[in-house]
Amino acid sequence: MTDEQRWLDLLQATGAVQSGHFLLSSGRHSGRYVQCAKVLEDPANAQILGAALAAQLSEEGVDRIASPPLGGILIGYEVARGLGCPFLFPERGPDGRFQLRRGFTLHAEERIGIVEDVVTTGRTTREMIDVVRGFGAEPVCLAAIVDRSEGHIVEQMRVHALVHLDIPTYAYSECPMCASGTPLYQPGSRKDPSKGAA
């Protein structure tokens, strides 16, 4: 059994990889959904997944790990623990943009690893990259428990991941599950499925 299959088995056993008809935060529809909170519910799982990702990043020369809230915080912290480096996370301000609070800061030329639970469209990853660069720090690597991004690359950086999934997504008007009448589930999306997101 490969390492990737081992991690996928763990995700499936904990219900972190689900099948059905889902509205993603991008507004697109998918027949599978990844909810890493289910696998991270057990601190022992968080520790072993974090250590495995830290091993992948060990040669990157990372000074600090940064993760987006809310889903990335647990795994990011465990990766930072595995690398023996500090950890921080931003929060959304009144304008909806990420900003550092709670006394967190970044320093010019610091080498930052960005860690998420799941990378899908890369939108949140790009927001994190902007935060890091805004302080003059350098985003040097990206990592996630699950990478389901197109091409497994964001901003010309390869995504280190324990599991890579190629899951088709569909616009509302082209979704075969909508056409078949399969009920739409909104597991963590910011959008309202009744509005028929495109």
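(ticket continues) Second input and output from the same batch:
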Amino acid sequence: MTAEKPMTNVILALGGNTGDVQRAFTAALQHLQDTGALEDINVSRTYQSRSLLRDDQPDYYNCVCTSRTPLSPLAFLQAAKKTEQLFGRQDKEGRWQERALDIDIIDYGAMIIKEDTLFIPHPMLESRSFVLFPMRELTPQYIHPENGLTIEQMCGAIKDNLDIRVV
């Protein structure tokens, strides 16, 4: 008899604005499931919004997924980064640039992690409607583990004016 691996609940945000983004979301999540990094995946609707920079970039598409993982936070981060690259993300893109796929760990087992390469919960969670709105669909009872705010309180305080809409 084999012992089951302990699983941790995770919340991920997926985003992108080049290529067939919705297909990339589906394929990336399937890849993470096929490799054993995720189980029991639930995905929000997809939202479209302007770039945070309000520049001439194409609109972004975003969704959130809840799932479970047997991986440690750092091992999952590595799996997510490899998946981004597999589905078209290039290191030369840099921060705030157009991208085929971005995977952010929003929450990992309600833990608070502050390391050089990993901050959980995601440090910009409270200020991003394109994460909070789809997240509210899947986790309406979510409470931020660090500041104690509910998902409704965070959604109500959003002032990013990104003209976000469901597609």
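Agent notes: The radius of gyration is 15 Å. The chain has a mean pLDDT of 90. Closing as not reproducible unless the customer responds.
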